[in-house]
Amino acid sequence: MSPSPLLHVHAVRKQFGKQVTAAGVDLQVANGEFFTMLGPSGSGKSTILRMIAGLEHPDSGRILINGQDVTDLPPWRRDLGMVFQQYANFPHMTVAQNIAYGLRRRKLDREAVRKRVSELLDLVSLPGFEERPVTRLSGGEQQRVAIARALAPRPRLLLLDEPLSALDEKIRREMQAQLKDIQRVTGTAFVYVTHDQEEALTMSDRVAVLNWGHLVQVDEPHALFRHPRTKFVATFFRGSNVVEGKLVGQGRSSIFECSAFRVALPELPSKFAHPPAVAIRGEDLRINGHPSPEDITFDAVLERVVYRGVYTDYQLRLVDGQVVTASATSGQNLPAGQKVQVAVRPEGITPLQAEPA
Amino acid sequence: MMKPWTRILVWLCLAGVLLFLYAPLFPPLLLAIQDPATGQLTLQNFGTIHSDPTLVGALMNSIILAAIVGVAAPLLALAAAQAVRSFGIPRLIITVILLPLFIPGVSMGVSTSLFFNLTGIDPSLLTMAVVQTLWALPFAFLIILTVMSGFDTLYLEAAYTCGANRAQAFREIELPQIAPGISGAATFSVILSFNETIRTAVVQGGNNTIQTFIWSRYQQVGLTPNMYALMSLIIAVTLLLILVLVALGRKQQPAT
């Protein structure tokens, strides 16, 4: 029998009035894992996190930590840490008092507390900040104090609710790298909630994409990015194209057909999207290249060229009017309005499932 | 930029309003520092306050009552405000709770007195304390509710996830942040208790407070210089307490 996972959320349901924020959610997080819940606002990701924390109670289902059922335990008995979007540092305390707050309940002597606080300030790169009033810090500094405070009692699990959303772009990127480092150094399991796809992809070991209280797909970042399972996941990540068509034939030899091309799908999902659709990443579409024999090729009209710095986007109209966008770093100088040949490798075409209901 | 004469006019108006507000306070002050026989300036009226045992007794009662009300009203108000937040009680019900504020003092006092009569409770300092607490409670409740609405309950959630239970989180996180409101409510309750006359007079029995004493003396025989001295002191103390309130309110503003 495999050891029980660090966190096990089992068939958890939660409803606020008519809005379902968790529709029978199942997920497991392993020790030391960086697990991210990604979704638009209202997808239920924060509510699920708050139920894990014990700040909300599920309508049904169980939450287990290290195999122990904590569903009915208050937050202060769950031995976990939490970081909030708005920092929530206690304004009437210094930095050191904030960080030491979680240590109050552990009968530590003053020297041990002082040592732990300075250890954590080193960890979050704020050495010597002990006596500063917490209200005088910048947003990034405040959030690092909040992270240190949550980690001080060495929780087995750290919950982070959009911790970088209130910060500006540059600091957010720095903090992403730093958070990942902190996670690696401490070996604490992180459950991270965000609506930012880049944040999810750069930091996580696994990402769960949520929509309307459902876990739509749980995968490693690469798999999620390359092979979205549903239309929702595909369109959530920038640069993915969804092409609709129809299925010809049944069983293992199904062929997906649209006006521009047809492709044999090696493995069919159990519940195919309706209408049938496939996802193709923009960078997998090659314009006027030298297609190899196994490539699928089709004609399209180049409608618009959008320069985006590293990438250039080419908006292509297929024969039946569907529009896809190809991205390339080469920056070919192609005039709009021209007919072009597009090539894609068959493995770049991902069949899409129906959304979970 | 304002024209100079407009500016002068504004200041004159302000001076007029202040004069109107504070002029009535001056006669007792002047009588307090005047020798009743010779009309000369003197401080001896203040010295003779303690020579009147009824007056001293009334003063003691006022102080005891103010202490009780100053503690009881904020505590009850805090409990009520916490309940309002926890149970998400709508604004309409809060307004209904505050309605006793608008009932005339005499009606309120008489009905309380009848209530005590029917339940067989004799007039005492306790009944006076109850009436005054009822009077101060809505004010204290409003003050504490206002301060608490400025307190983000996210701090409590942060404390819970740091391992603090409800009582610890309240004591260590919420209380220090809403303390200015609670001391404000206490100060206000003390002032209200000290100044309350009508409701108290109805349930006072044989006990006097400074206010009921001055009121009855004024109606029966007129006031003596040492009572003017006492009134001056009360006015001074009240103004002082108000200044403390303002200072607390200023401290409560977040440092920027």
Automatic annotation (TrEMBL), chain A:
Protein name: ABC transporter ATP-binding protein
Organism, scientific name: Microvirga aerilata
Keyword Nucleotide-binding applies: yes
Domain ABC transporter: 7-237
InterPro entries: AAA+_ATPase, ABC_SmlMolc_Importer, ABC_transporter-like_ATP-bd, ABC_transporter-like_CS, Mo/tungstate-bd_C_term_dom, P-loop_NTPase, Transp-assoc_OB_typ2
Taxonomic path: Bacteria, Pseudomonadati, Pseudomonadota, Alphaproteobacteria, Hyphomicrobiales
Keywords: ATP-binding, Nucleotide-binding, Transport
Single Gene Ontology BP annotation: putrescine transport
Family: Belongs to the ABC transporter superfamily.
Pfam family, one: TOBE_2
One term under GO cellular component: ATP-binding cassette (ABC) transporter complex
Superkingdom, natural source: Bacteria
An example Gene Ontology molecular-function term: ATP hydrolysis activity
UniProtKB/TrEMBL annotation, chain B:
UniProt topology in membrane: Multi-pass membrane protein
InterPro entries: MetI-like, MetI-like_sf
Cell compartments where the protein resides: Cell inner membrane; Cell membrane
Domain ABC transmembrane type-1: 59-246
Keyword terms of this UniProt record: Cell inner membrane, Cell membrane, Membrane, Transmembrane, Transmembrane helix, Transport
Transmembrane segments: 56-80, 92-115, 135-156, 227-248
PROSITE patterns linked to this entry: ABC_TM1
Domain of life per record: Bacteria
Chief location: membrane
Gene Ontology terms: cellular component: plasma membrane
Entry-linked Gene3D superfamilies: MetI-like
Any GO BP annotation: transmembrane transport
Record-stated family: Belongs to the binding-protein-dependent transport system permease family.
Protein name: ABC transporter permease subunit
Annotated source species: Microvirga aerilata
